[in-house]
UniProtKB/TrEMBL annotation:
InterPro entries: Leu-rich_rpt, LRR-containing, LRR_dom_sf, NLRX1_C
Name this polypeptide is given: NLR family member X1 C-terminal domain-containing protein
Source organism: Eschrichtius robustus
Pfam families: LRR_6 (PF13516), NLRX1_C (PF21402)
NLR family member X1 C-terminal domain segment(s): 121-182
Top-level division of the source organism's lineage: Eukaryota
Amino acid sequence: MSNNPLTAAGVALLVEGLAGNTSLKHLSLLHTGLGDEGLELLAAQLDRNQQLQELNVAYNGAGDTAALALAKAAREHPSLELLHLYFNELSSECRQALRDLGSTTEGSAQVVVSLTEGTAVSEYWSVILGEVQRNLNSWDRGRVRRHLELLLRDLEDNRGGTLNPWRKAQLLRVEGEVRALLEQLGGPGS
């Protein structure tokens, strides 16, 4: 369902459909415009589905309160293993609170608040930036700029939080590529 805008009514119907579903294990609602209202509805109704293992609500414009509510619901869910929250409008304080929440409860869902968390950063950043570079002239420039700004903030946040010099160097290199793309869009890259 990724990249398909959902209205509030659409989210309500989706939640109803999830309630009795026993076969759906992975649900990606990436970039569906859920916002705070959609995440809060999911948080309130998540326990109605007992089979879901992975939920991706990344890049939905959600803020701190809604993200924390969904993360808490995910941590209490019996089968959910992974919740993706990266590229939302989360403050640095909220990201840290979500990371702290993840370190306090064993055996519950991992909450991913950054695309660059864990080992996956090296697998994805070059693909993402390559795709942006290829489509820079055909995509909506404002949307591309916003996406790159979110990625840059994500990279800077993670660089500041790691002590590993090799990882810092990798993150700095990617930051430079993101800044270069932002400059190509017609302005300084933060």
